[in-house]
Amino acid sequence: MLIDNFIKYFNKNKIHDNQIIVATFYKFIQLKKKLEIRTYLLGYTKFINIKGTILLANEGINGTIAGKKKDLEIFFKNMTLHKEFYDLSPKYSICNKNPFLRLKIRLKKEIVTIGKKNVKPNKIVGDYVAPQDWNKFINKSETLLIDTRNDYEISIGSFENAINPNIKSFRDFPDWVNKNLVKKNISKNAQIGMYCTGGIRCEKSTSYLKKIGYKNVFHLEGGILKYLEQIPKKESLWKGECFVFDYRVSVEHGLKVGHYEMCFACRMPISKEDKQDTDYVEGISCKYCINKISEKQKKRFNERQKQIELQKNKSHGSQKN
Q1: Is this prediction's pTM over 0.70?
Q2: Which residues belong to the active site?
Q3: Domain spanning 2-107 has what CATH number?
């Protein structure tokens, strides 16, 4: 199933063998042998050119990786050997160069951190809304639409009429729910819709809301990425671009690479105009954080930027060879 869908995507979109494919995937499932699975994954990737991040936890797997067709095909063929992952449904997009510098496979307490031990999306979640049905769903007057992403992500794009919780990290979401839903006595029968980049945070959010008693909870299947991939721009209710957690920074309709870059000091997406500001120094500061970072931090960011440039040069050199 996994590898068949990958081949179908590759053929349908007429992707060149040398193009870089970005694959984003997750699955909430009880993993009993995550250390063993990590060992297997490290073995699979030792001899192929895959970069990105894969997280493993008791609650499942979460990854974004990138590589050429032949390498991703080998990776996904090996993934199908694990019965837990044969039905993964990655979201794919194309970019001109690999947006990652290396591959990281890490063991974590959660594959997306909400900080609540009793939240178990592999057992209870809200109802999925397919991208094709999303416009109709969010246009209903009774729908309370909540963006579960961080404030800096929402700053460059969102759905019309969505509530922005203004959170700095997903871990802050339960506190926002307590202050803005529970304490304000929002009915447990209210129709609540949530969305995020790829679906993982809004899925976990629905699990949390169901756990505390909300009954009519829904989330966008496949997240914003699947919506932007499947819904034509002329029919779309999405405004702006979608922040992604790699060197592309943002994507737009059709999952084309967007127009933003990132300040690696504060993670804020920055436009071409922002880069012309006198406070912008690549990898060190921008107008959003220039007055918030210390000299010690600036020195650390400067050293990090040097390491990034060295890694980029090594990567480009190996590609030429």
Answers
A1: yes
A2: 196
A3: 3.30.70.100
